Structure formats: structure tokens, C-alpha cells
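Annotators were shown the component list below and the corresponding predicted structure, then asked to write short factual statements about the assembly.
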Amino acid sequence: MNGIHDMGGMDGMGPVEPEENEPVFHETWEGRVYGLGRSIARWGRGRNWGSFRFALESLPPADYLRMSYYERWFTVHVNRLLGSDLVTQDELDSGYADASRPRPELLPPAANRGLGSGLLDVEVTARFGPDDEVRARNLHPRGHTRLPRYTRGRRGTVIRDNGVYALQDTDGNGQRLGDFPQHVYTVRFTAQELWGDRSSARDSVYVDLWEGYLEPA
Amino acid sequence: MAGSEPEGVGRRKFLKEAAAGAAGMAGAAGAAGAAESAPARHDHDHDHQVVPDDIALRVRALESILVEKEMIDPADLDAVVDAYENRIGPRNGAQIVARAWTDPEYRARLLADGTAAIGEFGFLGAQGEHMVVVENTAEIHNLVVCTLCSCYPWPTLGLPPVWYKSAPYRARAVIEPRAVLREFGVDLPDDVEVRVWDSTAEIRYLVLPERPAGTEGLTEEQLAELVTRDSMIGVARVAAPRESAQ
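Structure shown to annotators:
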């Protein structure tokens, strides 16, 4: 989706502000939110939670920018638990589990769970190879995609074939489109192809792109 | 700011006190922070107050509810927090870098197949399953970003710092990397090539920084002490011991 999360190349965000001796978690609750994400994942099985990334990207842009990182995560956790009726708003408001409600039950995984997000040991013909000139397709899907806006329509050069991965893109409801296992290439775009004469002619941006995002140039 | 949740206070008492006027927040957060974040409208005493609109309290409430429902085990959360606070962090990556600086064969393996070479140390796992290592030299400067999200090599660098996940870094690293680097204190000459790596897929990147001059006599362990997280993201150079002592 063409969301606020797809920030590469935007102006006006201000300076980068590193913090000296930054702790891993600034506050206790941040660590709990991080851990919660791992612990509740199994409760999403069979409940159509869809892509976590898509859920983050779908937060209203003003909220996305205002919220801290783990506040976004917490908001998505809560939205999912409420949406699946695993937790009610009354429970969140009171801070207590409603003893009159039945205990939630884990559901079996969906019959067609699909492939994971990791490198796959499957044979798929590679359409491109190192040194091939390619163009990122001008795609604007409503769902989650890993094709950054700043690359669309731009010409680059394949520098590496990273092997076969399942596509992680979703539909407009955050549900995976399907596995579509395909090669993922590292594509080098010259900085001037992307940003014109604002950039140095020496510089480049390297982006890892699924084969379906690319066409021959 | 330090953790704002006092330890050893029961949840019901905690929520009640917090709702009654932020007394429960008084611990490390300080009175000013508590007064800002905890509304004082629920000053009556009954068992179903609205939880104040404070994220620390809302998170604690959610965790408690999920524990009561037997959906999660808080010990699992403790273990995850402990792992990233105490074991999985940039000291791992620093060991990789120091080995590459002292062992040319390891360096060659690391640059040829990052996953396998990092695997020799056992630093693979979530968000580090497929690693590519890029080397900074006098001619080429590499910089890693995730414009879409916060992708980062957890097993070698731990969880990313706030600035890495922030809008300014994600927006600017790809379009004006030299300006970003200057803000970090790295002023690159025009004849140095900048390569920005946007971690959009499942590959995670680690920068092998340049070994600083004047470190010839140091052991691998001493070298690892010099290597910073930022140098392995590519926003800093590794300082020689004398510089870093200043």
C-alpha cells in the first residue's frame, strides 16, 4: 500500500537523533510489548490476523508518525485481540479478565498455511541473473508489498541472486496473496536514477526485490 | 527514562493507585512524568476504574488479562526481554568484526558467504537467517537502512536503536546518505562511493567497518572492544583506542 511507512526519500522529517548509551528498552512496557508479540502469535492461528507489517502500515498516517515504535506494536496487538474477540474492550478498561467468558481456545493452523518467509530449498527458474538490466515495475498494490515507492519505474542492475523466497505481499485486507516462490535479487540503482542531480554520481542504493517486481529493461 | 513500573506491587493495587492519582507511577518515573500521563478523574474507590490512558498501565493491564486467561506465560516474556537486554546485542557483531580483522581467511569467508561465516559463531536465528556482510574501505562506504520498516540483523546487533526505526533515518538515508553521515560525524570526501543497502526482503546486512590505524598490537578481544553498533550499521567509523579514550 502507498502508506506513510514507505518513507524512503521523503523530506521534512527532521534530523536523525541518536541517543548516547541507549537502553534496549527505554521502559519496562516496551519489552513486555515486544515479548507479547511473540507470545500471542499462536493465538492468531485460524483467526485471520493477516500480516503484522500490513497492520502497522494501515495505522492512520498521523497516528503512525505520532506513536512510538512499540506503541504501534501495542496498538496492533490490541486491535487483533479485540478483533478476534479474545479480549473485550470492557476487559481492557477494567484491567481484569471477565470470568464469565469462556476461556479462549487455540485453533488449529489453517489447512493451507503456506511457506515461511525464509530461504526456500525449491527449484524455480531464475528469469534474471547478475548484470542484467531491469526495471522495477510500476505497481501500486493496496496490500503489503516490499517494493518501495522510490524504486518503481526505475532502472537498475541485478548484482546478486539471493535464492528463492515466498512472496510476502498481501491483499488489501492483509492476507497473504499466496506463496509464489520466486528469486529475490539485489538490484543496484544509481542514486541519480532515483534522485536526479540531488545525488552524487558515485552513489548507489541497493534494494532486495522479488522477481515479480521486475521486468527486463 | 527508566522503567516506570514499580516492582512487587500487585496489579489491582497498582491500577487502583494509578487511577486514584498516579501514586503507582511515583517510582522511577518521577512526579512530573506521572502527572502528565495519568489523569486524576478516577478518585473514587471501587473495583472497576477505567484504566488511565497511560501506555505503561495499558500494557500491564493487557498482559495481566492474557495471563488470567492462560493465553500467555509471563515467564516467556521475561525470557525474551532478558535475551535482548543481556545476551543478544552488538557485542556479537563486534566479535565477528574483530575476527575478520585478525583472520584474513575468516574475512574472505565472511564476505563471500555471510550466513555461513556468522554461523561459525552461532549468531544466526530470528532476523539473521540470511546475512550479507559489506566491507567499508577507503574507497567505499556502506550504510544499512530499512525504509519500509525496521529490519535489522538481531542475532548480531540486537534490537535496533530508536533512531534506526525513526522517520528521519528511514526517509533520508536513501536520498541524502552523506548528509545523514555528516550528522553522525562521518564527513566523506566526494571521491568515496556511498552504497546504501535498503533491507526490503529477508536478507539482513552487517557492515564490516575499517580497522583503525594504530591497532596492530591489539588482540582480537581488544579489537572487539573498539567495535561499536553504529560502525556495523555504517553510520560511524571505528575509532582508534587513543581517539576513543578521549
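Statements collected:
1. Residues 86-245 of chain B form a domain with the Nitrile Hydratase; Chain A fold (CATH 3.90.330.10).
2. Confidence is low (pLDDT under 50) at residues 1-52 of chain B.
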